[in-house]
Design a protein that fits this description.
Order of helices and strands: HHHHEEHHHHHHH
Number of helices: 11
CATH class: Mainly Alpha
Number of strands: 2
Helix content: over 70%
Shape: globular
Radius of gyration: 19 Å
Structural class: mainly alpha
Strand order of the largest sheet: 1-2
Amino acid sequence: MAYLLQQLANAVPLAALYAALAFGYCIAFGVTRRADITYGAIFAFSGQMFLIFTEVGWNVLWLVLPAALAFGAGMALIYALGAGLVIGRTVMRPLAHASANAMLVAALGVLLMLTEIARLASASRSLWLPPFLNRPVIFWQAGTFQVTLTVIQMLNTALMLAILLAGHRILTRSRWGRIWRAVTDEALGAKLCGVDADRVFLMAYAVAALVAAVCGILATAYYGTMDFGAGLMFGLKIVLIAAAGGYADPLRSAGGAAAIGFVETLWGGYGPLVWRDPVIVSLLVFWLVIGQRERLIP
């Protein structure tokens, strides 16, 4: 029982990460209507920039660790958001209404470009952050077995949930949210009503890039590193995970992604670890192809 509770506790941070990423992905998907692996590339790129600039702050600027981490996070946000704006304006917006294959090829090229930029900037080194905020907090104890989460796991979960709540409130209560919904429902009709659909497209892509960047920083702070291959893996994984709850509703997509986070963690705790990713991806593909009638915005 205690082991199961620990696995469920371990699943909470991963579920929150998947939920936040799926929420941001659906904001961009609403205006692109295309599977976009560059979202995962921005996630990984943000984490890599966080590592690089934290090292600069520590070794070059001689900052104390909290200041170096803050410097790295600030620069990572600037670079990732800038990359998102450039990609949205120059690549995704012109190709959004072209064939799906054209956008997929362009997205793959963008992913490779961001990966190479990060690799060259770090001189092909694997950078690691020192452990911090890793004090365990005990939730329950059975004999000598303790159910715990670390401070950074709890902090990351709280921040990602805050992203979900703030994003949902903006989409449902604000004027921009109504305009975003109008553009996702019918871009041409929104244009005829005086809405600048191109501007909404760019803002939606920037918001999605911001969510991916924040999640990349938080994930890197917890895991300690972000490797060069993470962009492709997360890009493919997020496309499938976001589909678990459906692309049409960001909050529903976040809920489906959170469920996948729990399933993935429980498989890692009870099943063979080497089969975890193949099984999860296979289940997602099965759900998409066989069990899911995607209710996309017409």
